[in-house]
Amino acid sequence: MKTKTIAKLIRVPQWIKNLFVLVPLVFSMNILHADSLKFAVFAFFAFCMASSLVYIINDIVDRESDKMHPKKKERPIASGVISVPQAIAIAAILLVVNLVLCSQLGMYFILTNFGYILLNIFYTFYAKNVVLLDIFSIAAGFMLRVIAGAYAINVEVSSWLLLTTMFLSLFLAIMKRRSELVLTADSTHNSTRKVLTNYTVAFTDQMATISAAAVIICYALYTTSQRTIDIFKTEELIFTTPFVVFGIFRYMYLVYKYDQGENTTEIMLHDVPMITNILMYGAVTVLIIYKVLG
Asked: Which terminal residue of the chain has fewer beta carbons within 10 Å of its beta carbon, N or C?
């Protein structure tokens, strides 16, 4: 069994989503604290193991339907490159590593970690086929990442930051559904996602607009809230808002113009303006925080 095949099975590129676990580390000004940094890294990799574990479970459950999908049929289990027993063995290893990492992070983190796994199992067997519940389950997964990251380093998370996370993940999930709908409109593309029959392009467009606006508003309110100003001792975090607005608009542009929203990770890793914007956002945010620390 090749390493490349295993990496494809456990969806290594999707680990980028687990960077949400590090959000509390950055916004609690603990990034220079050695213990906090160590525990945050443990938490990140714990969620990488957990997310890969649920991807394997999902691929095992959906292997027959994946065989009929033009892209998913290339997945290791659906294509037969990795057998179900082999996949189960790899999943067991991931669970063991996850448990070892969790043992270093406290009971609240452990409960959140298993809550995330159970949520995704619920999604795999039921929620992904229920209109609206599917996208809200995805959003809940991202919120659990942020909450777990806070538990890992024992800090509180701003309610505005949690709401920003929820609406951002809802936005991405909705845009993914919209892209899938557009693809299914092409008679040559057969979708295996049953829930799409309950969505329309017009409905997803309305939800996307609401979610996008909510992301921008909640983030702006986070940067200007008294709690944030008291923590950072500055009002300058508001200057990071344009990067958030640009990121939302750029993503919408790629989806509406080029139908690229089916794979969020691919956009984040390959679209140069998006990558540049994310890096600039990170740099400006860190500079604002570190100027205060200095």
From this structure: C
